[in-house]
Write a structure and sequence with these properties.
The chain is of the alpha+beta class. It has a domain at 5-68. It has four helices and three strands; from the N terminus they run βββαααα. The protein has helices spanning 35-42, 47-50, 56-63, 68-75; strands spanning 5-11, 14-18, 30-34. A three-stranded antiparallel sheet has the order 1-2-3. The radius of gyration is 17 Å and the shape is elongated. The structure holds zinc ion.
Length: 99
């Protein structure tokens, strides 16, 4: 399952679509797709079939919204910027909930 937000027509057979906002940094990405791709989306095509040339991190943004940067922070917590004070969440505008 994936979601195309803010579908808007640019011209005949060309539409812009926006990803879900990243749950951590609230950024989105916008792509252009064809009318045929939009039709296939509305007919439940998988994202792999619909956007075979789009990089996996970008596809991810249409499924969960998580951006590459936040994904890296979530799954590679040893990298820089990680706040290693017993907080299980990455640093930057986060709440530790007292952990
Ligand atoms: Zn993010």
């Amino acid at each position: 399952m994936f979601t195309l937000l803010d579908v808007s027509k640019i011209q005949e057979q060309l539409y812009s679509v926006t990803s879900l906002p990243c749950p951590h940094c609230y950024t989105t990405v916008t792509l252009e797709i064809t009318g045929y791709q939009l039709w296939r989306y509305n007919n439940n095509a998988s994202i792999q079939d619909l956007l075979p040339d789009v990089e996996i991190p970008v596809r991810e943004r249409f499924m969960t919204g998580i951006c590459g940067d936040c994904w890296n922070k979530l799954f590679n917590p040893d990298e820089e910027e990680y706040d290693d004070n017993n907080c299980t969440r990455f640093s930057g505008n986060h709440n530790c909930y007292g952990y």
